[in-house]
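Quick one, T. Sequence first:
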Amino acid sequence: MSVIRQEDLIASIADALQYISYYHPVDFIQAMNKAYEREQNQAAKDAIAQILINSRMCAMGHRPICQDTGIVTVFVKVGMDVRWDSKMSVDDMINEGVRRAYLNPDNVLRASILADPAGKRTNTKDNTPAVIHYSIVPGNTVEIDVAAKGGGSENKSKMVMLNPSDSIVDWVLKTVPTMGAGWCPPGMLGIGIGGTAEKAALLAKEVLMEPVDIYELMERGPSNRIEELRLELFEKVNQLGIGAQGLGGMSTVLDVKIKDYPTHAASLPVAMIPNCAATRHAHFVLDGSGPALQTPPSIGQWPDITWEAGNARRVNLDGITKADIAQWKTGETLLLSGKMLTGRDAAHKKMIEMLAAGEKLPVDLTNRFIYYVGPVDPVRDEVVGPAGPTTATRMDKFTRTMLEKTGLIGMIGKSERGPTAIEAIKDNKAVYLMAVGGAAYLVSKAIVGAKVLAFPEMGMEAIYEFEVNDMPVTVAVDVNGESVHNTGPRIWEQKIRTEHLKVI
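Structure tokens:
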């Protein structure tokens, strides 16, 4: 019998969450580096380079890999011979660990959890509560997997009830392109098969905690149907040509993880959950001897990669006009300097409501660019914390009104825009630029000034004014409505197929 003390569990949870905010798992870094070495599309290769450089910077600077520091998910296996030395419930201990981690003054993490999700959506301020799953197992230890899942990947989760005779492979290949690039590929796919609807989803989430080992599987060969399915899907999903950040390319997934469970004879439930390029999870075991603290990897585990903008066009946002942006072409790299505004869903909703009521907006958006971001609070001498882009499609429904009623001429976000936004961009001769998701700390280093201009009560959702210097972006939608996220994957899927390019 072992006795698990209250403080040991709290401290272990807090340590794990701090650790995974700035350390990628080493197996993930190695797989990402393989994708970098194999990538033939220069735009996708540049995006992967930024992700790897960002990862190394975060490991050295102990700041978050992504501005979205996630919703905490915990899997707990409690040994039947364990006793607890605690006045708190296990749920309360875990949530206290989350609270400590997210409020750590040396590395404050962004509070993203909202209570009353269908009503007031009030921020809990400390990222509690976690989502916790328990298993009671033989033994005298407590085994814990902890992850922080960002909205960009979590929101792309898919679930289906197939007929028993349906093809899982066909469903996955049909579904992955509908996920867009907001989940920041290249990443991992977790697939749960069987049980009931909720069991399949739980399996998909749980299997993402396993190591990246697809290349080891290739070397030894599959030993069962699940492993055969992993290899088949790994190759066929990469042959879709979606590529890093949806720009088109050789690597869309770094691994496909699958877990199954017996199911009803009439059923074939399947769930698919992606992990993004900011994959964050850790494992530890408590045996009564004290807290379980994570061991940092050597910085030598990261590849020594540099990124140069090459022939990038330098752009001064101060005084920019529609005539200037009309010269930009999709796929072109820009280095932005000058002042831009920020704003996400809540700020857009508020501005649209004000416009509808005939009220004057608190900021002038004429000939301005708006960056879709909810930054992490700064620490020490930072101007702003990690400030990577938000999934831009969330702003699609506001785009036409913003372009036609405010004088806005450009937007910066993550991944693709949907057809309604593209149509509005084309009609108004505006542009949409894409920053790399999964490179939040790297992006933040280009921000040299930051101040809140409006809606301070909204916290990270407030409208900031950022002053930037050489912030790297890609022209994703030009003034003619051409989208690199539409053309890139189509081109690379064809290239992979017709030129028989090796994607694994």
